[in-house]
Specification:
Radius of gyration: 14 Å
Largest sheet: none
Strand content: under 5%
Shape: globular
Distance between the termini: 13 Å
Number of domains: 1
Helix content: over 70%
Oligomer: single chain
Length: 115
């Protein structure tokens, strides 16, 4: 089950991180909406891609997967806080909340069975 959840997170964060790093128009608009520069949004994308690498490495080294998951969870907490601060509604906040819940599930499973 951990592998399936990790795969979902890898796909989601690979897409989101790559889009932020490439500064595609939709991500530029999101950066502007939340008050971030494109450069700051690109750095967030780079961190997401590092998280992807950590999740992949976590298949062999549970400690790396745990650290990557924790890092991604911190990024998601920041995303939720940013959306709330900007007065965004549930539609804008939901993706970060859902990914956060999936990330917590991954961490619980991985910590509970680090083999």
């Amino acid at each position: 089950m951990t592998t399936i959840i990790a795969a979902l997170l890898v796909v989601a964060f690979a897409i989101l991180g790559s889009a932020k790093l490439a500064a595609v128009p939709a991500m530029r608009a999101r950066a502007e909406h939340v008050g971030f520069s494109v450069g700051a949004y690109r750095r967030i994308g780079a961190l997401e891609l590092l998280g992807v690498a950590g999740l992949l490495a976590g298949a062999e080294l549970a400690a790396v997967g745990i650290l990557a998951g924790a890092g991604l969870l911190l990024l998601l907490a920041g995303a939720v806080g940013t959306h709330v601060r900007n007065g965004d509604g549930p539609r804008e906040v939901a993706p970060a909340v859902v990914l956060g819940m999936v990330t917590v599930s991954y961490l619980v499973l991985l910590i509970g069975n680090p083999s």
